[in-house]
Amino acid sequence: MFGGQNMQQMMKQAKKMQKQMEDEQADIAKTEYVGHAPSDLVLATFNGDRELKDLQIKEEVVDPEDVDSLSDMVIVAVNDALKQIDQDSQKRLGQFAPKGMF
C-alpha cells in the first residue's frame, strides 16, 4: 500500500513529532504556575507535574474565628494554578493530539 520510501518518511516524521512532544512535556514540567486567590491573599505555586511547591498566605487573612474563609481562598488559589497547567498543556500539546485528549 505504501512505498518503502513513503513509510520511512512517515516514520521519521512521527519520531520528530514524538521528540517535540516530549520536549514540550519537559518544558511544562519545569514551568511554575502560580494560582491566585482574590487580592493575592493566598498564592499556590505548582510545577507542571502538579506538585505543590509553595503556598503563601498573607497574615491579614488568618483569622482564627474564620478558618472557613482561609480554606476557601486556598482552594481558589490551588484550583487556579491547576487550571493554568491544564490550559498551558492544551496549548502546547494540543497540536500533537486529537481535540479533547489533553
TrEMBL record:
Record GO cellular component, one term: cytosol
GO terms assigned for molecular function: DNA binding
Subcellular location: Cytoplasm, Nucleoid
Region (Disordered) residue spans: 1-24
Pfam families associated with the record: YbaB_DNA_bd
Gene3D superfamilies: Nucleoid-associated protein YbaB-like domain
Entry keywords, A to Z: Cytoplasm, DNA-binding
Main location as per UniProt: cytoplasm
Task of the protein: Binds to DNA and alters its conformation. May be involved in regulation of gene expression, nucleoid organization and DNA protection.
Subunit structure: Homodimer.
NCBIfam families hit by this protein: DNA_YbaB_EbfC (TIGR00103)
Family label: Belongs to the YbaB/EbfC family.
HAMAP family the UniProt entry points to: DNA_YbaB_EbfC (MF_00274)
Protein name: Nucleoid-associated protein FOL01_1742
Organism for this UniProt entry: Weissella jogaejeotgali
